[in-house]
Amino acid sequence: IPVLGVIPKEVPNFYPIASNPDLIFLVLRDPPGGASSTTIAAGTTIDFGLSIDGGHTYNSNIDFNGLVGASYTSETNAVMAPLGFGVMTTALKVNVGANVHYGHHFQVSSTRASSSHYEYSFYFEYDFSTSQDPNIAGHPSDVIIGGGVDLIVNEAIK
């Protein structure tokens, strides 16, 4: 059973939407070789920025077409009866008519764009190193620092 109506809201809802959780902020590469490693020293700061651009476009075309017409017919009859009887015939017939065609085209377009920029900073309080184990040297010992960004969508209140 459908229920129609309006539910008043005093506070808008917001919905977090997870973006790609595979954002990579930093890769600490382990060099090839058995006892090699790479270190980020304590006190190191890494800064970077992230921009999110969005847009919305709406286009609509509406056509109205119509026809309005009117007509009028008038007929005058005459009787030809020279001997007291005769034939009735149409003496005059007038037909008048007019048609009006109309049309209108509406086009509605809307474009909205937004852009947000975020600055991030990582500060390392301790040394951070890749493995020195000769069995996992090179790519298997790389350290990847990453995460994700949650976008918040707000629900509007009329």
Description:
With 158 residues, this protein is an all-beta fold. Helices cover 0% and strands 62% of the residues. It contains no helices and eight strands. It has strands at residues 14-18, 23-28, 39-40, 45-80, 87-123, 128-129, 143-147, 150-154. The strands form four sheets. It has a two-stranded antiparallel sheet. Strands 2-7 form a two-stranded antiparallel ribbon. The protein is rod-shaped, with a radius of gyration of 41 Å. The mean pLDDT is 77.
Give the N-to-C terminal Cα separation: 26 Å
Runs in which pLDDT lies below 50 for 5 or more consecutive residues are none
Average pLDDT for all residues: 77
Structural class: mainly beta
Note the beta-strand portion: over 45%
**Major β-sheet, in short?**
2 strands, antiparallel
Outline type: rod-shaped
What percentage of residues falls in helices of 4 or more residues? under 10%
Number of helices: 0
Element order: H for helix, E for strand: EEEEEEEE
Strand order of the largest sheet: 1-8
Number of strands: 8
Q: Nearest-angstrom radius of gyration?
A: 41 Å
